[in-house]
């Protein structure tokens, strides 16, 4: 099976712009989670989607949003970018919430805000 | 709320020596516990997990970890370090009513000296 894919892999944006990142989960996986990784804050949970519904949300401002499509692909959007949004954004997929939560991570999208 | 503490942000061992990476968690309910590894410019790869049952868990690449409820610990060990083990290691926890929301420790960078 193909792994989790994320596009684009690298992105440079300017403060105030918005950005959309995409994640395609492993085939058959219905849960998609997003994480932000920065040197200062480490790995932080953004949100989880399961069957097109947001199931969990981390402690991030409303500028961070996401959605999941019927084919389980997911996108996250960050509006009004700030310098502090520069990070590696990781997507993870999991077969089902009922299983022991084994998640498979994609390679990430490296976002740089200038 | 749960939290994860990894003692030592950097650990250095000689090739062939024992690897011990420490992880302690706090959780009001029994958690699921995980160790992930991250190589440079890559996503996270699951090394091993504890959900229920046997408290000594074996993972990939010769790593293992033991869940000790009384000590709220889940330390990662490997008998003999290899140069290819140099990477960053993350301990993580999911509380069983939190879907797939992983809470990560701050990470430990393992360096292996020849």
Describe this structure in words.
The complex is a heterodimer of chains A (114) and B (114). Chain A is mostly beta strands and 114 residues long. Helices cover 0% and strands 53% of the residues of chain A. In chain A, the strands form two sheets. In chain A, strands 2, 4, 5, 6, 9, 10 and 11 form a seven-stranded mixed sheet that branches. In chain A, strands 1-3-8-7 form a four-stranded antiparallel sheet, with no helix packed on it. Chain A is globular. The relative contact order of chain A is 0.33. The model of chain A has no long low-confidence stretch (mean pLDDT 93). Chain B is mainly beta and 114 residues long. Chain B is built from no helices and eleven strands. In chain B, the strands form two sheets. In chain B, strands 2, 4, 5, 9, 10 and 11 form a six-stranded mixed sheet that branches. Chain B has a five-stranded antiparallel sheet with strand order 1-3-8-7-6, with no helix packed on it. The chains are: A mainly beta (114), B mainly beta (114). The interface between A and B is medium-sized, with 26 and 23 residues.
What profile does the largest beta sheet of chain B have? 6 strands, mixed
Radius of gyration of chain A: 13 Å
What's the pLDDT, averaged over the residues of chain B?
92
Assembly form of the protein: heterodimer
The share of residues in extended strands of chain B comes to over 45%
**End-to-end CA span of chain B:** 41 Å
Structural shape of chain A: globular
Strand content of chain A: over 45%
* Biggest β-sheet strands, sense, barrel of chain A: 7 strands, mixed
Helix content of chain A: under 10%
Uncertain stretches of chain A: none
- What is the mean pLDDT of chain A? 93
Model regions low in confidence, pLDDT < 50 over at least 5 residues of chain B: none
Question: What value does the Rg of chain B take, in angstroms?
Answer: 13 Å
